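Anyone have tokens for PaaI family thioesterase? Sequence:
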Amino acid sequence: MSEQSIEDRAQRFLAALRHCQVLGMAVERADSKGLTLRLPYAPHIVGNPDTGVIHGGAITTLMDTTCGISTVCVLPEFEICPTLDLRIDYMHPAEPGKDVFGFAECYRVTPNVIFTRGYAYQDDPEQPIAHVVGAFMRMGKAAQGGGELKQDIQQGGAA
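Reply: yep, here.
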């Protein structure tokens, strides 16, 4: 699969997820090496109004989404791959006023499970905010059966 088609597939997948639209997430890069998403800083995702630090739930959503969509970087065809397990180790809070980036890659693909790993960062990937590992269940073509998300992704739109 071409690098452009990987990025297009990642864009369509992200566009189909309403909560990601509300958070303003965007694909920064998607290729056979992995996926990078951007979570823009915004007042509605601040967890502590006194410090302006982004809520941990927004970072968790970013990383779960990044790991989940990274599956399109390795699979020859789209498959629904729900989260089985996700572990996030927070290194330090995100700096207020700055966007957060999430990177994820698939490091093992089996017939039933895809294993991912990645990190969240702001200015420098060498100074991560958090590390993540995740496992995603492969549903396969038979389980996709014309579902609404699959249709949205294939049509390039969101509900």
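The CA atoms of residues 113 and 137 lie 5 Å apart.
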